[in-house]
């Protein structure tokens, strides 16, 4: 016995009509997915560029801030040029670059060297303003002072 199929007003069978609807739905989904992927790629790109820009800005800022410390630091001649000597500090500045506080995480153990870093930290009250910081925002910068950090 043969299968009876209905025909639409356009002369298509019900199966052909359903097939056409499925094709249209798949096409619409594919277009939406492509738009979504394009939007997602743009978003990913913008985030990546933003992060790179922020990192480059922060790196450039760190270098400018480091230069202020290097210019103001006199490492005593009695301190050996020993690469194991270091003082780690977190410096907090406000959006104008004013040094709000500092916290020594690790002293070197060499009292002469440590004292020179302590004097430097008390001396430097102003750094360049961090360009990305919003008004009132505090920015933390990590520095590792070493006897050979100073420009010769």
Written description of the protein model:
It is a single chain. A hairpin with a 5-residue loop joins strand 1 and strand 2 (99-106). The chain has 2 helices and 3 strands, in the order αββαβ. It starts with 13 loop residues before the first helix and ends in a 7-residue tail after the last strand. It has 152 residues and is of the alpha+beta class. It has helices spanning 14-72, 111-123; strands spanning 87-93, 99-106, 139-145. It has a 3-stranded antiparallel beta sheet, with helices on one face. 47% of the residues lie in helices and 14% in strands. The mean pLDDT is 83.
Question: Structural class, judged by helices and strands?
Answer: alpha+beta
What is the distance, rounded to the nearest whole angstrom, between the alpha carbons of the first and last residues?
A: 101 Å
Number of strands: 3
Kindly estimate the percentage of residues that lie in beta strands according to DSSP. Answer: 5-15%
Q: Going across the major beta sheet, what is the strand order?
A: 2-1-3
Percent helix range:
40-55%
Main sheet summary: 3 strands, antiparallel
Note the overall shape: rod-shaped
């Amino acid at each position: 016995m043969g299968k009876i199929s209905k025909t639409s007003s356009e002369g298509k069978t019900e199966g052909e009509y359903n097939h056409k609807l499925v094709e249209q739905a798949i096409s619409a989904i594919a277009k939406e997915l492509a738009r979504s992927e394009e939007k997602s790629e743009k978003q990913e790109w913008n985030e990546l560029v933003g992060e790179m820009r922020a990192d480059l800005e922060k790196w450039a800022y760190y270098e400018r801030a480091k230069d202020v410390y290097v210019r103001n630091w006199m490492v005593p001649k009695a301190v050996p040029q020993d690469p194991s000597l270091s003082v780690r500090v977190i410096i907090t500045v406000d959006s104008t670059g004013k040094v709000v506080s500092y916290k020594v995480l690790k002293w070197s153990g060499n009292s002469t060297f440590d004292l020179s870093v302590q004097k430097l930290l008390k001396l430097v009250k102003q750094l360049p303003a961090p360009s990305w910081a919003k008004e009132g925002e505090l920015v933390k910068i990590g520095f590792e002072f070493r006897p050979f950090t100073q420009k010769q």
